[in-house]
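not sure who needs this but someone in the group chat was asking about Phospholipid N-methyltransferase from Halosaccharopolyspora lacisalsi so here u go. i didnt clean anything up, its just raw.
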Amino acid sequence: MAKPSSGRGLFLTEFVRSPLNTASVLPSSPHLSAPMVAPIDARGEPTVVELGPGTGAFTAAIQQRLAGRGQHVAVELNERLADHLSERFRNLSVVTDTAERLPEILAHHGCGSADVVVSGLPWSAFAGGDLIDTIASSLTSGGVYTQFGYTWTRWAPPARRQRAQLRAAFQQVSLSPTVWRNLPPAAVSVARRPRSATHECIDGLPGR
């Protein structure tokens, strides 16, 4: 059960502290959350990993979608935001670490792969060029990765570079319609069927 959020002020504070490591001045809206979490299966026991959850805009939508099923692991580098998430969401596993260590994080939680990875990471997190491959290789063969981007940055070099990386790492990449009711307006990239998928989890243990 989630506690009421008071994260908007915290989000702004952390943006001012470190604007390169915080995706926006404001948390994402519920209107953007919907397409971000839509690929999560409404049945079964999916493993969902959230990268850069911030104050929990997508976290709340994931928790509602899962309704107590499966595993939900949030990877947040900012310790203040990680503490906020731990206090707000009781059924969430919060890891204070970098997204680059996703394979080790999954192994620590008893699974070699995720069914869905939802990312709220800023552009700076992808500057090294290897994170998309790390995410793809951490997904099951039918896994899905979602990443939002602001509409006004769609043709900027970082956005074009990331689209090329997604097409190289996944067999299918699509873009949602613009979510005008988010501030700023944004769209969601949905990448399916990773080209270098890990084995699926069986009974909570890493696949062989």
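also The first helix runs from residue 7 to 17. if thats useful
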